[in-house]
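Hi there,

I know you've been waiting on this one. I reran it after we fixed the sequence typo, so this is the corrected version. Both the input and the resulting structure follow.
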Amino acid sequence: MDRKQEPAAAVGAAAPDADPTSRVCVIGAGPAGLAAARALRESGVAYEQLERHDRVGGIWDIEREGGPMYDSATFISSRTISAFHRFPMPASYPDYPGHQQILEYCERFAAEFGLLKHIAFGVEVQRIVPEEGGSWLVTVAPAGSKQGPSEVRRYAAVVCASGAQWTPRVPEKLGLFAGDLLPARDYRSPASFAGQRVLVVGAGNSGCDIAADLGGVAARCVLSLRRGYWFVPKYLFGRPADTLGTGGAKLPRQLRVAAAEALLRLVVGRPQRHGLPRPDHRLFESHPNVGTRVLASIASGVVTPQGDIAAVSGRLVTFASGDCEEFDTIIAATGYEPTLPYAPALISGVDDSELYLAAFARRHRNLFVLGLGESNGGGFPNFDLAAFMVAQYLADTRHNPGRATRFAQRIHAHYPDLTGGARFTESPRHQGYVDAAAYAAAAAATFAEMGWSSPRVGPVPSLAGVSPAASTKVAQRRAPARYRAGRFDFSTAVVVVTGAAGGLGTHICHQLARRGATVVALDSTERELVDLVAALPARWGQCHRSIGGIDLADATAAGRIAAELRDLPRLDALISNAGMAVGGALTERSDDELEREIHVNLVAPLQLLRRTIPLLKLSPHPRIVLTGSLGGVVAMGTDPVYAASKFGLRGAALSLHIALRAEGIPVTVVQPSAIDTPMLEREARVGAEPSQFLTAPQRPEVVAAEVVRSLVRPRPEAYPQALDGLLARLVMLAPGALPRVSALADRLGKPGMRRYIATLERRRS
């Protein structure tokens, strides 16, 4: 590919568009900017991309002035988990590609998705200013021209994707050094430091790489660390270390951390053995140090570790240990300030008080930021997730304003946990730091809740004015094969949902309606049900309906519901979601309480199924989905009545799956563990089973997505959380171990329950 790429529009010549003010401005053509450009293009959103350099790639171009790249730099995450979605890195690449290969990969990505023609190279953004109404004024000028001509352009929105590693963070005391002081950004190769006494300050990935580079070249190389770090080898058991945790059941965080720390102590050894400080944090609570090259350099004596710097005077550096030493050069590998120089007053930080889902500015409408914060996983997939959320939100502002308004409310009021339960160290680098798995889960929940498509599939084109039948063909063409096999046509389906007004039922109804299904919502409440049906999307002209005021504890309820359902033009799926849990020891429960709970959770669903199966047989794609519980597979000692009802429901569902298979009616029982709903809140306050909090309570929208997915991909049993499925199978294999497993789960779950109760208190305040 040519060294330079032709600009799409120089200053003074805006890219053609029927309505220039409807365009989105994307600042930067590095990896985050390219992710944004692809998502916008595939979502049908007009945009213009501004890049001050003469090619794409951002920091991965080592020739770019002011960039942080150096000769030995490689990805610290493996190519397997680091590629853009739907564009894997070449199999010829090494597991940890070098900067030149990543640059070439970015260039091929831009060419493959037709992004180059929309990029204006050599254009620098000087300032962005919001206008009333949500539009933006962007001042641009030729790159590198301090007094050259500038112009102001108006855009509907701005995506800031200019990156974070441009402004070095250098401690003030290093400014007293009389020798050469270089930020790590200015380091390229060790050759120019031959024969020098060099102090490298900071033991992040760059600092360790630089120290290892210099160890065999400099007359002396000292590495200064303020605190202890964990060192993760690039390979474990012959595989890239970051691929070992993918594809299997997810263990609770406490167990994963303890197991990984023990493995590192076995494989790498304790850092103290190399004269390094003991880590002052648990593994995964700080940005990972990937690679052990610096440990080999320390072990061979070419790099000497030291503690924090106490004072600097001339060329003399005094360390916290009291040791003093003179140096010719100090290289400050002390991180970067996450800044937007063209918008210093608009974004004051990258934590969740400033950015929703690390991308949506909370204080400014139509301002988005990609790639400014950091994560413990591959950056490119996270850029994709954020970009596709931004792009589909912007598309909705024109084609689905109601949904866009709903998401805008989330931007201001929703604060999802993106830490994955980790307590990240309180260093500047970890401001707004996110756990990659937690971010992926939050993004997946957002895609499901909003009815958007994920980058793994690509967005379905705008369906404005498209018939339900045609839109279904589009969705099937874009969906993975495992979903196509279900042949469930949401656009013509009528789906009955019991327990529709509850915390989980509401999400199920919304997700069904967004997919085009007509929802018949049932619950004992009247007012909440009417409000729910009124709020359901009806994009394809669905006529949703409510059947309220029927208590499933009533022996006549199933018959009355069946009578109402016979008036429907058709019935394609029944989602039996209603349930209840009272809790308490068996000896403390009255007969009426016992009968009511068993009836609502087990008897009523079977009575309703008996009456609706004849109606379902008339459907071209009938489905039955029952909402069970992990408590119906793994017994909890605190609630035998609930366990009895859910164990019974599971047995009935599995039996019906076999019995109705010949009729072409698949039956699925979905087995979630604790769900963050009002029912769980009540349980937690009166004394819930601690084992329910072994992992964080599942978000109702995630469980709802599994329920809806079961219509498309029916199977006998579905677990929204992989760990639950693993636990269930283990208990079924060794039921005698249940008391010991239960006691251990209770002990491990108590901290999680305390965190959940604290979260509830914060919500109330």
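Quick highlight: The longest helix spans residues 738-764.

Best,
R. S.
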